Amino acid sequence: MPVTKLSLAALNQLDRDAFVAALGHVFEHAPWVAARTHARRPFADREALRRAMLEVVDAASLSETMALLAGHPELAGKALAAGEVTADSAREQGGAGLDRLAPEELTRFQALNAAYRAKFGFPFIMAVKGRTKQEILDSFARRTRYSREAEYASALEQVALIAGLRLAALINE
C-alpha cells in the first residue's frame, strides 16, 4: 500500500491529535515522540522536523528510550511471519527480503535474535531499507559483540535512521 504524502505546510497547521495521527508511527510504537514534538512547530523543513523528533528522544528518560527500543519487532521474527508488525515494519522488512527467507536463513535469524535479546534486553534494530540479507546478518553478528553501552547507542542511531527514512517517504517539501 503506497504511503500518502503530506506537505510540511499542512503538517505545521495540524492540531496535536492530527499531528500524532499523521506522525505517531514514525517511531515504532512510540506516538509520544510525535506528541512531544508538536509543540516545537513550525518546522522549516523535513530535516528540522527530524531533528526536533530526535531531540525529544534524546530528552526522554532511560525507561522511555528502552521502551522505544523494545517496541521494535525482531527482524524476520515471529511477529513478521504472523502479520503482527506495523505496516512500516512489514514494508521495510519485506523490501529486504526478510519475509521470504529459506528455512536455514530463518533459523539463523532466530538464533541471532535470541542471542542479541539475551545480551542486550531489546531487539536488534537496523534500518534495513536498501540492505541485503547478508549485510543485515553481518551487522547482526558484528553488533552482538558490542558492549551494552555501545549497542544501546547503535540501536538509537538505527532508530534515528529509520525515522528519517519514514519521514522522507511521508513528507513532501
Q: Which helices and strands, and how do they pair?
A:
Layout (H helix, E strand, L loop, with lengths): L5 E2 H6 L2 H8 L7 H7 L8 H14 L2 H9 L7 H4 L5 H9 L7 H18 L12 H11 L4 H23 E2 L1
Parallel strand pairs: 1-2
Helix pairs in contact: 2-3, 3-4, 4-10
Low-confidence stretches: none
Shape: globular
User: Which structural class matches the secondary elements?
Assistant: mainly alpha
Measured as a percent range, the helix fraction is 55-70%
Radius of gyration: 16 Å
Separate helix tally: 10
- SS strand fraction: under 5%
Identify the quaternary structure here. Answer: single chain
Q: What's the rounded overall pLDDT mean?
A: 94
Number of strands: 2
Please write the string of helix (H) and strand (E) elements: EHHHHHHHHHHE
Strand order of the largest sheet: 1-2
What composes the largest sheet?
Answer: 2 strands, parallel
- Kindly, what is the distance between the CA atoms of the first and last residues, rounded to a whole number of angstroms? 21 Å
